[in-house]
Amino acid sequence: MRNLAIIPARSGSKGLKDKNIKLLNGKPLLAYTIEVALESDIFDEIFVSTDSDVYAKIAQDYGANVPFLRSKELSTDTASSWNVVRDAVLSFRKIGGEFDTIALLQPTSPLRENKDIINAYHLMKMKNANTIVSVCEVDHSPLWSNILPEDKSLDNFLKEEFLNTNRQNLPTFYRVNGAIYIVKVDYLMKVENIYKENSYAYVMDKKRSVDIDDEFDFNYAKEILVEKFPKLRRIGEKRPNAFYNGKKEQLKTIIMGCDPSTEDNSLKFDTVFNLREDNGDVNFMNPYFNNIYKNLQYIFTENSGNKEFFQDEKFANQIYVQNLCKDYLEHETGYYKDNWAKWINYNTVYIEEFIQELNLVDPLHKLPVFLTAEELINALVLKERVHHYSCKILDYYQNRCGLIRSEDNKLGRILIPLGKLPSFNLAEFPQYCSIIKSTLKE
């Protein structure tokens, strides 16, 4: 079965200017829908229907396809979304694209998750449905609602049987939330009403059902995204001081982390990578980078027991150490570890600022970057370009020689996954160590 995702994103908007590309926590609104469509691994084609070259470029940057632009006739306020979809189906047929289902995924629903798309398709298969549409519970029962006459009279406003009924005793009502519409193509092309026959609801949580129409909705979605990561400081804090001796010409590599674990940013890298002794003060010792440091010894000295390595000024001059994330998080707790990469993807400002920082020390992109956590791989790899994508460091060693090409990641540099002890002991992988050494010499 071939599945087509259609993401409608015409330019302009009366309620909220350029709503579909407005930055939500540093990323265009449109990008959230493209990314969950990619993550679902359901679709043979992810198509953004737009009338704008600017929108098309943004869509393509995030991994969607825009083989043609929408016509002016279908780009008005009054144009039906389903006419846009039918036109897209016909346009794909002209270029040889045939599909069994289409999923209409509106960019104004940025909080839907890939599991929602996957589960909706599973429901379609289980029910052999023509149509699946996402719904959620209404906030307020329509049984307590009515129209008002011009004089605002409440006479007979509510039916008597509901006057003294507690809210929890009222029947549950649902509304179409606009996040997911899945329709069999053959059915879509022969009916006007997709709800008419063999259609079913996929029920979503209310919090994931935000449909952005105005500034209030937009700000509400922003707050919900932040609520997912309550232990994080907000965007805007200063990035930690990098460990860098200031000699560009001697640099061999960039070491990238994601675990700010000391309160004093100026000391965070200093104790692990500086030449001075730490005096046994565990409050200033970063165990995360200390375990990375020990792995690096196999690359630079092949002897983890060499005490002189800690005092080697030559080594210190060859590295630039920095965190991608400038906000504190409880990295070692399971929830935040699992969701860290999502937070980074929700805030592309981190990556953009990090690229600017690295360009100052390595403008020609010659230095490879060590990724010291699987979460970094997940945040930076362009999944649509990497076949059989996996964020596991061991998988990259075994299947890809450990290297991620510059064209396959968001930093545009060679990336080298390098885990921390004890989960990834480089001493056990001499071939990988040789590959890394060769890369550093290039």
Q: Which characteristics define this entry?
A:
442 residues, Spore Coat Polysaccharide Biosynthesis Protein SpsA, Chain A, 2 domains, four-stranded parallel sheet, 12 strands, 33% helix, 13% strand, elongated
Q: What would your notes on this structure say?
A:
- By secondary structure, this protein is of the alpha/beta class.
- The protein folds into two domains: 3-227, Spore Coat Polysaccharide Biosynthesis Protein SpsA, Chain A; 248-441.
- 33% of the residues lie in helices and 13% in strands.
- The protein has 15 helices and twelve strands.
- The strands form three sheets. Strands 4-1-5-7-6-8 form a six-stranded mixed sheet, sandwiched between helices. It has a four-stranded parallel sheet with strand order 10-9-11-12.
- Strand 2 (23-24) and strand 3 form a beta hairpin.
- Helix 1 (29-40) crosses helix 4 (114-127) and helix 11 runs parallel beside helix 13 (374-380).
- The protein is elongated, with a radius of gyration of 26 Å.
- The model is unreliable at 230-235, 260-266, 278-285 and 328-335 (pLDDT under 50).
